[in-house]
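ok trying again, last paste got cut off:
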Amino acid sequence: MAKKLGFFGKITKFFKSVKSELKKVNWPNKEEITSNTLVVIVTVIALITFIGLIDLTLANIITPLIS
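nice, full thing came through this time. structure:
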């Protein structure tokens, strides 16, 4: 029969499990982080520009209709 763990035993088991799983993680190297960060920044800038242009266009179309 399995031994029942107390509260602190469960916490200890959880952190040992977390440590074990973190050892299995394939961490990215510096070049991968840099390239992925650049992709994110460029994508965010492109989306900001696109949404801003749509907002400006719709504002210019709708404003005369409301006035």
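cool. Helices lie at 7-24, 30-66. Residues 31-57 form one domain.
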